[in-house]
Amino acid sequence: MKKTSLISIGAVVAASALLLTGCSASGGGASARACVILPDTESSPRWEANDRPALESALKDAGYTTDIQNAGGDTAKYATIADQQLSKGCGVMVLVDLQGAGVTVAEKAKGQGIPVVAYDRPIKGADYYVSFDNEGVGAIEGQCIVDGLKAAGKDPATAVVVYMGGDATDGNAKMFHDGAVSVMEPAGIKPAVEPAGVWDGEKSATNFEQALTSLGGKVDAVWVANDTNAAGVITILDKNGLTVPVSGQDASPAGLANVLLGKQTCSVWKPASVEAAAASGVIISLLKGEKISTDMTTADGVPYIAVTPTKITADNVVDVVTAGDVTVKDLCAGDVAAACAKYGIK
């Protein structure tokens, strides 16, 4: 990734507001229609709970028609949705990649002269990529593992650390991994075991249990790429009576609950509203036929608009609640209620 600077959350919101203010569709039909394909509901709850409503609201408020559909983790369905959307006409195609399916759809769309925005996950050949600083996300996770080991009195250079990454077909997974390694490796950490990456909590639980067995039940920390996978890992740690540093991202209700309970060292907050605001600004400019300037590119040269993520520990979980990205009702149920009270979440 080539970059000279990151776009701050405040700057993105301000820029998007300027684009949205007074902006409306100048014409009807396909030219004023944004087609969006979300990947699934399994890798993260964010797609339906946060991204869909944020994108839909911003684009409709600006006077544009939206067609937002979810592929449900099925690459064949992803292709079918794309064909249906393209047959009806799209002014811009917005794709969250699913196991490489976005590449073929991007080629089809561009073949019809339709600009393509890769959203959250990179897609080769897209016109623009809008996401958070993914290596920065990984770096936050890696630092959580280093700090967690030191707090536990463990030497990172001799600690037994398992790496639980994301699906290798998702280009972001490598960036998360690279960012984490950029922090953990200088501290002396090397993976004791590194199963094949997935975006699936149940599979992560199975993979981690097998890894733990191969290590004779000994583990000092687990670098995990996201909260969903971390939840799977934590079920196995709980089963074995273990509490060790565990990372994650997405600031999901389950992830935040584990953070508050001391089972997960940190999460990384990537407000979907902020990412959607950045994407909406790009989408609206493209629908208006405007060019967009960026000072960053991905490794394969796609213009990259990135926003800065935020580290979340028990002390600032309340910020996610205050922002409205998770509700007290969803977070503070059952055994989490006491922890919420302890950290001023009410």
Short description, anyone?
The protein has 346 residues and is of the alpha/beta class.
How does this structure look, described?
With 346 residues, this protein is of the alpha/beta class. The protein folds into 2 domains: 169 residues, 3-Layer(aba) Sandwich (Rossmann fold), CATH 3.40.50; 168 residues, 3-Layer(aba) Sandwich (Rossmann fold). It is 44% helix and 14% strand. It has 13 helices and 13 strands. A 6-stranded parallel sheet has the order 3-2-4-5-6-12, with helices on both faces. The protein is globular, with a radius of gyration of 20 Å. The chain starts with a strand and ends with a helix. The N terminus is likely disordered.
| CATH fourth-tier homologous superfamily of the largest domain | Response regulator
Radius of gyration: 20 Å
* CATH class assignment of the largest domain: Alpha Beta
Overall geometric form: globular
The number of distinct β-strands equals 13
Which stretches of 5+ consecutive residues score pLDDT under 50? 2-27
- SSE topology string: EHEHEHEHEEHEHEHEHHEHEEEHHH
Overall pLDDT score: 91
